[in-house]
Amino acid sequence: MLPPMAGFVSPLSEKKVPPVDAQGAGTPRAVCVEAMPKTAAALKTALAKYLLPHSNDTELATQLDMVHAAVSNEEAKGMDQSEGGPTRPVLVRTVDSLVKKRALPKVDILIIDTEGADPLVLQGAADALKSVRHLEFEVHRDLVKAAWGQIKLRSVMDGLADFDCYWAGNQGSLYPVMECKRRLSPACCHV
C-alpha cells in the first residue's frame, strides 16, 4: 500500500472531485498501466484509499485510472511471469488504444518504464505522440533479450523527430541523446 507522500496524497473520503475547474478544462486525469498482477492489485487497493491532488491545489483532485495490462506495439494476449512464479495471461494494449478507449483529447505527459520494451510501446503510441507535450522513457541497451537488443536508439529517435530529447543528468545538466552513451532516461518535449 502506498503511504501518504509529503501532503500530496489524501484519503478519498476527505476530497470530492469537481467535474470541471474554473477554466472548463475538466478534472485532470492520469492512466496507470501495470502488467504484473500483484503490483496491479496493490495499486488498485491504494487507489481506493488515496487521491492525488492536481498540482499544489488540494481542492482539485486528479482522476486516476488503473489498467491491468501490458503495453506494446500491438494488441494481443501475452504471458506474464512474475519473479519466477507461474505464467499467467495478460492483455497487451497499445497506448493509442488506451487513449482512444478513454476518449482522451490529448496526452500532456507520457512516462514509459517497461524494462526494455519501451521502443515497442513508442511504436504503439504513434497517434498519441502527436499530442504529447512531455515524454520520458528508459533506454536499456544492457537488456539484450529485450526490444532494446534489436532496436537501435537512432531508429527510436528518428521516430521522435517532432521532439527535442535530452538525457537528464543528476546534476541538473542536459545532454543531447545521441551524444551520450550512459544509461539514463531521455526527457523529450514536443516542438
From TrEMBL:
Organism of derivation: Polarella glacialis (Dinoflagellate)
Protein name: Methyltransferase FkbM domain-containing protein
Methyltransferase FkbM domain residues: 68-141
Region (Disordered): 1-25
